[in-house]
């Protein structure tokens, strides 16, 4: 059994893309007329937020695989997808707050629907781990977590559409259905940044799954070779075991 | 909120620089923390793998010669791989 197939190539591609993105951000993309140098934060903040939201939806789609097949590997993939999306989401929130402080003079603005809706999505998915932890039986844990991941994952695009339809928002719009407001060089830099962050998400997702599968396999080997007594009892865990 | 934006023109570079640096440092720091946690888990897996190999050797023959030990270690390693 091989773990993390293609992970090495993916890692190199990710590093190259992120390096290229950083070079474009600081040496190629022009300064924004309205926001100046602060706008550089957008090249990291927006891709992080988009990747996090896509990661939540991805976790929901993988959870469908678990409910359809009953195969626990789909639960593991869904768990890791949501786990990674949470990390990216936290990074998106922090970088967004830094931008808000620099641009608006406040770390957080409750009247902005985009900020608040993103926070709601984050808080919703923050309950995913405690939900898993509260269920001891691994089968039930995986099933309930999959149902949660699907329902919460479906909430993400609904939430996104609702905010877009809301009137009177002030959050800067980087991308729109009609092509967005970015000039060519900024658009290219943003696209490379988004691809870089998405690749980083994929690499870390594969890395985490490979590590978890290796540990599971090691445990099975120990059981097969030395018997049940050789295994240390598994502690209660939110992660699939 | 519109008034807040209107009253907040583009910051000069020396003021904006620390904010931009902070945002990118947060990103790099989160990745480094994640990699450090993963490295710790990997070390634990390697340690458990070594333990398993040792246990397998002991199980096969409690008191082997030095030559046999190395041969069995290789066999156990192949089995694990």
Q: How would you characterize the overall build of this protein?
A:
The complex is a heterodimer of chains A (241) and B (81). Chain A has 241 residues and is an all-alpha fold. Chain A has 7 helices and no strands. Chain A has a single domain (7-172, 182-219), classed as Up-down Bundle (Four Helix Bundle (Hemerythrin (Met), subunit A)), CATH 1.20.120. Helices cover 72% and strands 0% of the residues of chain A. Chain A is globular. The mean pLDDT of chain A is 86. Chain B has helices at residues 2-6, 13-60, 66-80. The chains are: A mainly alpha (241), B mainly alpha (81). Chain A binds chain B through residues 32-38, 40-41, 44-45, 48, 87, 90-91, 94-95, 98-99, 101-106, 109, 111-112, 170, 200, 204, 207-208, 211, 214-215, 218, 221-222, 225-226, 230, and chain B through 1-2, 4-5, 8, 10-13, 15-17, 19-20, 22-24, 26-27, 30-31, 34, 38, 41-42, 45, 48-49, 52, 55-56, 59, 79-80.
In percent, how helical is the residue content of chain A?
over 70%
Helix and strand pattern of chain A: HHHHHHH
Count of helical regions of chain A: 7
The average pLDDT score of chain B comes to 74
Number of structurally distinct domains of chain A: 1
Poorly predicted parts of chain B: 1-8
Shape of chain A: globular
Oligomer: heterodimer
Question: What is the CATH C level class of chain A, in words?
Answer: Mainly Alpha
What are the defining features of this structure?
heterodimer, A: 241 residues, mainly alpha, Four Helix Bundle (Hemerythrin (Met), subunit A), 7 helices, B: 81 residues, 3 helices, rod-shaped, disordered N terminus
Question: What's this entry about, in short?
Answer:
The complex is a heterodimer of chains A (241) and B (81). Chain A contains 7 helices and no strands. Chain A has 241 residues and is mostly helical.
């Amino acid at each position: 059994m091989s773990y993390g197939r293609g992970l090495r190539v993916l890692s190199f591609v990710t590093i190259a893309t992120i390096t290229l993105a950083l070079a474009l951000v600081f040496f190629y993309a022009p300064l924004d007329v309205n926001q100046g140098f602060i706008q550089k934060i957008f090249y990291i903040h927006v891709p992080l937020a988009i990747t996090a939201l896509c990661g939540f939806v991805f976790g929901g789609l993988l959870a469908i695989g678990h409910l359809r097949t009953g195969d626990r590997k789909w639960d593991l993939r869904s768990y890791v997808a949501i786990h990674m999306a949470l990390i990216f989401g936290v990074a998106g929130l922090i970088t967004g707050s830094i931008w808000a402080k620099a641009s608006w003079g406040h770390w957080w603005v409750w009247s902005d629907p985009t900020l608040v809706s993103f926070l709601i999505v984050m808080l919703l998915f923050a309950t995913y781990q405690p939900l898993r932890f509260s269920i001891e039986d691994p089968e039930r844990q995986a099933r309930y977590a999959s149902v949660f991941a699907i329902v919460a994952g479906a909430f993400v695009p609904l939430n996104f559409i609702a905010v877009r339809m809301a009137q009177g928002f002030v959050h800067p719009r980087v991308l729109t259905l009609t092509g967005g407001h970015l000039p060519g060089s900024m658009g290219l830099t943003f696209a490379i940044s988004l691809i870089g962050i998405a690749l980083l998400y994929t690499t870390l997702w594969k890395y985490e799954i490979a590590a978890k599968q290796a540990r599971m396999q090691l445990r099975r080997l120990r059981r097969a070779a030395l018997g049940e007594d050789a295994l240390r009892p598994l502690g209660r865990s939110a992660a699939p075991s | 909120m519109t008034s807040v934006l209107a009253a907040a023109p583009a910051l000069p570079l020396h003021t904006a620089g620390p904010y931009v640096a902070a945002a990118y440092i947060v990103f790099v720091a989160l990745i480094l923390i994640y990699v450090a946690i993963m490295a710790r888990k990997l070390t634990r897996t390697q340690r458990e793998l070594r333990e398993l190999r040792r246990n397998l050797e002991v199980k096969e023959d409690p008191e082997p010669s030095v030559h046999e030990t190395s041969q069995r270690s290789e066999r156990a390693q192949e089995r694990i791989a």
